[in-house]
Design goal:
seven-stranded parallel β-sheet, Rossmann fold, 261 residues, alpha/beta
């Protein structure tokens, strides 16, 4: 029996990057998918990719802005209406925002990043936990970042929001373990996703971003970027019953860089 056979997995930020990678992995293992993103084109592309590896996968697509509480409630309600339950939740949608020193970081930009990265994760927890508590079981993985466990510089909004995700993860995990629910977070480092590519382009421009990328990973003990599918393997494990006693944990996936002095 596959790990996610007859399981319903809800994924935000599913239109690209880590969300897509996790969708592909759990679909290959039998999951029914509820895929959420603001980018409808990205959602369709993810659906097409999933159908290549899991032709019989049941897939619901929901367009939603995770910073809007009503839209979050709606994507949870639609998932339950369609599939009857939620077994796993990859609470993943996020943005980096513009890079700048704290004194020059725009207040509107700060609010925007926190609204999506932190408030969006909170809203997701708020409505999904009600479903899982009623069921007496469930697995949640929030996307934090190495920027949520240490300073990275020039990213006030991102760092603040991702540190907040770590706090929410640990607090909620302590509250809901008694109901058979595990809540963990992943802390990705430099994984080659569209968001990371965009970050490198902020630094090096369209012509120079690849050279910036090479320099960026030079200090990494593994001397490379991570791959989205590597995050998919980790997240799928944490969303599965095999990780039933893993709770309130933040797992870095960064080649060891966050532990390097």
């Amino acid at each position: 029996m596959e790990r996610f056979e007859q399981k319903v997995v809800l994924i935000t930020g599913a239109g690209s990057g880590l969300g897509r990678a996790v969708a592909l992995q759990v679909a290959k293992e039998g999951a029914k998918l509820s895929l959420v993103d603001l980018n409808e084109k990205g959602l369709e592309e993810t659906k097409n990719e999933v159908q290549k590896v899991a032709p019989n996968a049941e897939i619901l697509l929901v367009k939603a802005n995770v910073a809007n509480e009503e839209e979050v409630k709606n994507y949870v309600d639609k998932t339950v209406q369609t599939f009857g339950t939620i077994d796993g939740f990859f609470n993943n949608a996020g943005i980096e925002g513009k890079q700048n020193l704290t004194e020059d970081f725009g207040s509107d930009e700060f609010r925007k990043v926190v609204d999506i990265n932190l408030n969006g994760v909170f809203y997701g927890l708020k409505y999904v936990l009600k479903v899982m508590k009623e069921n007496g079981t469930g697995h949640i993985v929030n996307t934090a970042s190495v920027g949520g466990i240490r300073g990275v510089g020039n990213q006030s909004g991102y760092a603040a929001s991702k540190h907040g995700v770590v706090g929410l993860t640990r607090n909620s995990a302590i509250e809901y373990g008694q109901y058979g629910i595990t809540i963990n977070a992943i802390a990705p480092g430099a994984i080659m996703t569209p968001m990371v590519e965009g970050s490198l382009k902020q630094i090096g421009g369209e012509e120079g971003w690849e050279e910036v990328g090479k320099a960026f990973v030079e200090p990494n003990p593994m001397k490379r970027f991570g791959k989205p599918e590597e995050v998919g393997y980790l997240t799928a494990f944490l969303l599965s019953d095999q990780a039933g006693f893993v709770n309130a944990t933040v797992v870095p996936i960064d080649g060891g860089q966050s532990f390097k002095y």
